[in-house]
Write a structure and sequence with these properties.
heterotrimer, A mainly alpha (264), B alpha/beta (175), C alpha/beta (273), A: 264 residues, mainly alpha, elongated, C: 273 residues, alpha/beta, 10 strands, 36% helix, globular
Chain lengths: 264, 175, 273
């Protein structure tokens, strides 16, 4: 009965997905529970912040710069139709601080640092290092997984801010230096329109939430990877794909709540 | 990996991030107006609120003196009611006129305050008595066309000669 | 629960069943490991040898049967008691499982740093002692990626005995080693066992190297113990499975041909195999 088996297959897939969600949730709870240990052995986390954050500085800064410059270039054409080129600063700043900074920085972080975390943990699993730790009565989640998770959460808002700052600088370079818009108007209108609590703080909150999501997905995929070369490679891919989707979906939800009916 | 150089670079990274956040907060945003700025609230009633939005500026002689907080509709008189917060350092007379202007043809609308000569000042909870509603482009055009049409019929001074600005002013002045 | 246990046995495994769903790996395995001895567990790949080690270490629970180590029933222990029991065990994983981000010395120091309150100087001295025992004191500052297979295995051995366990388990310690390293590792296993008063379990399918150093051997096939004995009797055994395994005959109880259709019929049929 083809229909019954395909319905059964769908049902089984659904059950598997639910089971995986449950396993993921228990895993996250386990990571959070080992948090006190993470902060008492802070040097481990610091090391991971180095690998996740410092190594991402270059790609984040350069990308931020380019995004800001493109924003200014594209925005100029449209704004000049309405004779509103003075608002260039506002356009660049708000786009970056509210959306592009947190989102694009998170996407880049997921590809660069998230996949690296997944690969590291997956490789440790494949070479039985995690099992060796367990046999030596050391909890691998506290020692290997949690520091990477918290390093991601700490690094993400900092990277998003750097992205936005570089972007605004890039926009300034194009708008003021290249196109010739009045710098006073550029910065003045920006300052008037960007509200610290409403725009910047919301952007920071977004990046923290993204950091949590990306880090959780990355360490989970590594920990749950099949202990083979293909398994680790598949897990790395899954980290990037799942993180990206999660970032965009969460961004939508957060934006609805944060920027509802400003009328701006 | 040398412990000290790791810590150093992490420190640099964190400092850069915090500096970026500070830059955003101070130079890009307006940290000076963190949280709700202080001020006293007054209300103004308009026939037509136009495109005025909450958080629109309230200006007097072009200087920002406050913000529009809320806009609502009075269910009994069907007038638009705007609640305005005026910053504490500015005082306005009780006979101040509140008018809705546009900054440019397609620009945002704001509330302009024109102080009068009264000796008593507005305080928290007062109502601005004299208001001038927003200019509505459609009404302007229809009046212009109506007056143009009637001009062709009578030899009197064309009504169209009456400055368009006066018409809404007459409309808007209230008791 | 107090099982009746001969005090001379470090480990007793009694009629243990274990499997994943439809796949039953262990179907009633029983064996004893006397204190102070080196016992080998041998068999083909996938016969459940590594699973036995994981049952002893408490990483898996048997579906039924008893696993008793040093008087304690491992499956019944709670998390802290299990960790306490594990601190008395050492395990050498296949290919070493050294921590790739730490140096050799840090690897050996790891269990001491994590589980004891010893001072740094004491730990450093102990690390030197353990590395000396395996002949790798000179490699203390190298990273695992800079070691050869045999050296990595020896470092892992040093790490395994770092906190002086009572029981050491070796999972395929001879896999992928050159003849010299093979001999060195085998010698170390035997010497350390006798010198430190350990009990050792050796899981391997390298017959020659294992028979040289063990006191007793169990053969596992199809989830059961099919043969056991000391090296002499094993070498002389007439049991078909043991004979095939020890001598490396291509065909015997473990058949050469995987089950397939009739040869003639397949050759004559027009369809693809």
């Amino acid at each position: 009965m083809p229909i019954r088996t395909s319905i059964g297959a769908v049902g089984e897939k659904a059950a598997n997905t639910v089971e995986r969600i449950g396993y993921f949730s228990r895993f996250v709870v386990g990571v959070l529970r080992s948090t006190p240990a993470v902060f008492s052995r802070f040097s481990l986390t610091l090391r991971e912040v180095y690998f996740a954050g410092v190594f991402s500085l270059v790609i984040i800064s350069v990308s931020g710069l380019f995004v800001g410059m493109v924003l200014a270039l594209q925005g100029y054409e449209t704004l000049s139709i309405f004779g509103a080129t003075e608002s260039m600063g506002v356009l660049v700043a708000l786009s970056l601080v509210r959306e592009l900074g947190p989102v694009v920085a998170a996407l880049l972080f997921a590809s660069r640092a998230g996949s690296a975390m997944t690969a590291e943990i997956g490789l440790m699993k494949t070479t039985e290092q995690l099992k060796a730790m367990e046999m030596m009565a050391v909890d691998p989640i506290a020692r290997v997984v949690a520091p990477r998770f918290w390093a991601g959460v700490i690094s993400m808002p900092l990277l998003a801010a750097i992205f936005s700052a570089m972007g605004i600088f890039g926009g300034y370079l194009v708008a003021v230096k290249l196109i010739g818009i009045d710098p006073g108007a550029f910065w003045g209108q920006m300052q008037a329109a960007v509200d610290v609590r409403h725009d910047i703080l919301n952007g920071v909150i977004k990046s923290i939430v993204f950091g949590i999501a990306v880090s959780a997905i990355a360490v989970y995929q590594g920990y749950a990877a099949k202990p083979t070369a293909e398994g680790v490679s598949a897990a790395t891919t899954r980290t990037v794909v799942t993180s990206s989707l999660a970032i965009l979906a969460i961004d939508f939800i957060l934006t609805v709540f944060m920027f509802r009916g400003t009328g701006l | 990996m040398n412990r000290n150089s790791t810590n150093f670079w992490v420190g640099v990274f964190v400092l850069l991030g915090l500096a970026a956040i500070a830059f955003l907060a101070l130079r890009v945003g307006n940290l000076m107006t963190w949280g709700e700025p202080a001020g006293y609230h007054v209300t103004a009633r308009f026939d037509n609120i136009g495109n005025l939005k909450p958080r629109a500026p309230v200006k007097s002689a072009g200087v920002v003196v406050g913000r529009v907080e809320k806009i609502g509709l009075d269910p009994k008189s069907f007038e638009a009611v705007a609640q305005i917060k005026i910053f504490p350092q500015f005082e306005f007379t009780k006979d101040t006129i509140a008018a809705i202007y546009s900054s440019g043809l397609l620009g945002e609308q704001f509330v302009g305050l024109d102080a009068g000569g009264d000796t008593v000042m507005l305080k928290e909870g007062d109502v601005i008595k004299k208001t001038q509603s927003a200019v509505q482009l459609e009404k302007l055009i229809s009046q212009f066309m109506f007056s143009k049409a009637s001009e062709g019929g009578t030899a009197q001074t064309p009504v169209a000669a009456v400055p368009a600005a006066q018409i809404p002013a007459i409309e808007g002045v209230k008791k | 629960m107090n099982p009746t246990l001969s005090p001379s046995n470090q480990i007793e495994i009694d009629n243990v069943f274990f499997g994943y769903g439809a796949r039953q790996i262990l179907k009633g395995v029983s064996l004893k490991v006397p204190r102070g001895s080196v016992v080998g567990i041998m068999g083909g790949s996938g016969c459940g040898k590594t699973t036995l080690l994981r049952l002893i270490g408490g990483q898996e629970r048997p579906a039924s049967g008893r696993v008793i180590v040093d008087g304690k029933s491992i499956p019944d222990l709670d998390k802290s008691a299990l960790y306490a029991a594990r601190s008395r065990m050492g395990m050498l994983f296949q290919f070493g499982a050294l921590f790739t981000d730490l140096t050799v010395a840090e690897n050996v120091a790891f269990p001491m740093r994590e589980n004891t309150q010893l001072s740094d100087e004491l730990i450093n001295s102990l690390v030197l002692m353990k590395l000396n025992a395996v002949g790798l004191r000179g490699a203390a500052q190298l990273k695992p990626s800079e070691l050869s297979g045999g050296m990595a295995r020896r470092v892992a051995l040093a790490r395994t005995i770092a906190v002086d366990p009572d029981l050491v388990m070796y999972d395929e310690p001879f896999a992928g080693l050159d003849p010299i390293s093979l001999s060195v590792v085998g010698q170390l296993i035997r010497k350390l066992n006798d010198a430190l008063g350990l009990t050792s379990i050796l899981v391997s399918h390298d017959v020659v190297a294992s028979l040289k150093i063990v006191d007793y051997v169990y053969f596992i096939s199809d989830g059961r113990v099919v043969a056991e004995g000391d090296p002499e009797s094993i070498r002389a055994s007439e049991d078909p499975f043991v004979k095939q395994f020890v001598n490396g005959f291509p065909d015997g109880p473990v058949p050469f041909h995987v089950s397939a259709k009739d040869y003639r019929a397949q050759m004559l049929s027009p369809s693809a195999p």
